[in-house]
């Protein structure tokens, strides 16, 4: 599984960090998404999908 | 396709917590239907969870306030005027104007930054609860707790002196009250704006360690933009959480099994906060979007210029999304979530702050006052049915001193 993020779409809601802080963080400067782990494994795979679904701005894409 | 047409948005509730029954029936029938807006415009009423969520994130729809048709008339019969959003008031703007302004603030509301405020928010909550206890054995929870806690927090973050709340609190209530006429609402808005502009001048002369000063220091926004952004954050930061704390406490007191469960398992609090958000949906009129182009959605022909009323409370009770949706169940898996903070690029900027205020607020309230109960019959609790944000005007509560 691979996660990609698009900072230009991100609106800084923080839903991804709330869902899995081991995969995602937010930049100190403007709150946009910072990808900590592009290749999630184990229980984090499900959380990555959830973060993709919850992202209000469609800034997260998960591919198998 | 034959379309169901309603005239005006149903607003009558049968009880304090459920959306109007008429809307729930309509959702079962037609999650997307036609609705005549207050000015005669034939727009749309959307009540299904999936449909509301999808449309909130669709950039073919605009949030620009000047494009929207009014949902209802004000108390004196006036049609609410919807001028173009004033500079800085990004809630009523689309990209790229919205993007530019929101980006100036998102770094201030990250999950990490909000978590760092926990201890400080805990102190504010404890002090308010102490002050409430000093009242004896009964008090109005709204006045002593639900309103002051988020007001103190947002004032401190923005750099608005809390002791000057007389300059915006009453006017905020006037501005959000549908029973007022347009002139009264506009005058209230103007007074808050004047106060914010005055604050901007004071911050320029003597900057502090706060968001308004921070915005000014970047040199990016104009003074007017800073003032209006400040007003937006001030309103959004205290009215919303205050009403969730007030109405949420009322809901928990009226669902003793759920309250007992929360007291027995305090770890459920984060889930309970999400469930209260879903169950109560205090943005009770929902949100409006207006189509910028013609498009087809779920078999319906949406035309450029059509306004769509996206009814958040009814969407949050959609059985296609939530099992047994009309039950308050604090163990409900929160994944898949409510739309109470919205969806799309306008999703609530302060949601992580709101979550922490509610988590700490509800936990401390019921720890400190384990036998808290209503001091009046539930039917006598005054509801904010005619306010832009739903909740309780006051919540008389009592406890064993």
UniProtKB/TrEMBL annotation, chain A:
One of its GO terms (molecular function) is 3 iron, 4 sulfur cluster binding. The keyword Iron applies. Keywords: 3Fe-4S, Electron transport, Iron, Iron-sulfur, Metal-binding, Transport. Its cofactor is [3Fe-4S] cluster. Ferredoxins are iron-sulfur proteins that transfer electrons in a wide variety of metabolic reactions. This is Ferredoxin. It comes from Lentzea tibetensis.
From TrEMBL, chain B:
Signal peptide: none annotated. InterPro entries: Cyt_P450, Cyt_P450_B, Cyt_P450_CS, Cyt_P450_sf. Keywords: Heme, Iron, Metal-binding, Monooxygenase, Oxidoreductase. GO terms for molecular function: heme binding; iron ion binding; monooxygenase activity; oxidoreductase activity, acting on paired donors, with incorporation or reduction of molecular oxygen. CDD domains: CYP105-like. PROSITE patterns: CYTOCHROME_P450. Belongs to the cytochrome P450 family. This is Cytochrome P450. The lineage of its organism: Bacteria, Bacillati, Actinomycetota, Actinomycetes, Pseudonocardiales.
